[in-house]
């Protein structure tokens, strides 16, 4: 924006305001702030005089401290930031770091807890599914055994095999009565 007499007046007023807030004296007036070497690029230096002595300038350390203390108000008056409104020899103030509304450790704890709960639920559900599958297979096997029918081969009925107990072949059974002793 254009730097004109009104902007200069606002700057002088903000510096006078900063000096009054810093020194707790109401002696600093707008006329005590002098701008020198104003350029088209809005570059200048300024001096603050002491109104009680009328000629003496206020020490630079006091002016620096006053501006540092009220820097935010000066920046807001011109709708600028520390990057756009620079005071030489006065370090810019760093804004305090932004703190989230919830602590970081609480977020990490919540994520870990959710993963643990999801793992437990997965294990329970998979265990239930395996148990159901096992029960289903055993009932199917029992149903197959019950449904075994007597088959006929060459017109002669054959015995149904007992799948649970197995089938004993009588030829190889050891009968002591059938063999002669030596």
From TrEMBL:
<keyword id="KW-0597">Phosphoprotein</keyword>
<dbReference type="GO" id="GO:0051957">
    <property type="term" value="P:positive regulation of amino acid transport"/>
</dbReference>
<keyword id="KW-0325">Glycoprotein</keyword>
<dbReference type="GO" id="GO:0005886">
    <property type="term" value="C:plasma membrane"/>
</dbReference>
<keyword id="KW-0472">Membrane</keyword>
<dbReference type="InterPro" id="IPR042944">
    <property type="entry name" value="Collectrin"/>
</dbReference>
<keyword id="KW-0812">Transmembrane</keyword>
<keyword id="KW-0732">Signal</keyword>
<protein>
    <submittedName>
        <fullName>TMM27 protein</fullName>
    </submittedName>
</protein>
<dbReference type="InterPro" id="IPR031588">
    <property type="entry name" value="Collectrin_dom"/>
</dbReference>
<keyword id="KW-1003">Cell membrane</keyword>
<feature type="domain" description="Collectrin-like">
    <location>
        <begin position="1"/>
        <end position="182"/>
    </location>
</feature>
<keyword id="KW-1133">Transmembrane helix</keyword>
<dbReference type="GO" id="GO:0070062">
    <property type="term" value="C:extracellular exosome"/>
</dbReference>
<feature type="transmembrane region" description="Helical">
    <location>
        <begin position="104"/>
        <end position="128"/>
    </location>
</feature>
<dbReference type="Pfam" id="PF16959">
    <property type="entry name" value="Collectrin"/>
</dbReference>
